[in-house]
Amino acid sequence: MRNIQEVLKNINDFAKEISKNSLVTYEDLPQYSLFLSQVIDYLNDRFEEEKYTNNIVQNYIKNEVISKPEDGKKRGYTKLHLIQLVLLSYMRPILTTDEIKKVFALAFNEINDRSDDIISWENAYKIFDKIQNESFDNFLSVDFFDKEKLQSFIGDDELKEDEEERILVFLVVMSLIAKASAIKKIAKKIVDEYGKKHSNK
């Protein structure tokens, strides 16, 4: 099938584009403190599908998922808050608010107390950036889809050429969903088990 190579190349190109626009490096985060409205604009520019609002961020603060803004300052949202919210943005599609809180507690204990952090937020952010870049690099370097297996699925049915392409894309999407689903379940199980262990101390 002629289309299989072309479709898989296009998908690889999508992955390259996404990897280029993935995480903002620590150095590229705003260096100055922001108003809440500026934080919302920043997040919505970076995470268009998330639709952040003032209420969403304020609820994360109220529920102690992220740190409180600096007292008495109009521009009370610092680079630390952006780091927390960007990391949270990657977890939001996968974990519940309570699970995100447990993940943060593993490394930072009490969210509003910097003195009990096991690692710094800066290091956590840089580590996540590196892991994410490596994940994209691995995706791009590995022959992620078994072309012969895909061809065998398609080849069993008598399909027109445009139908072959549609079924190929369907199979690729379902393959990614299966992998993402498995990873999500594993992540949730880890958070659940270690969250219980941490909260029992």
Automatic annotation (TrEMBL):
<dbReference type="Pfam" id="PF08876">
    <property type="entry name" value="DUF1836"/>
</dbReference>
<dbReference type="InterPro" id="IPR014975">
    <property type="entry name" value="DUF1836"/>
</dbReference>
<protein>
    <recommendedName>
        <fullName>DUF1836 domain-containing protein</fullName>
    </recommendedName>
</protein>
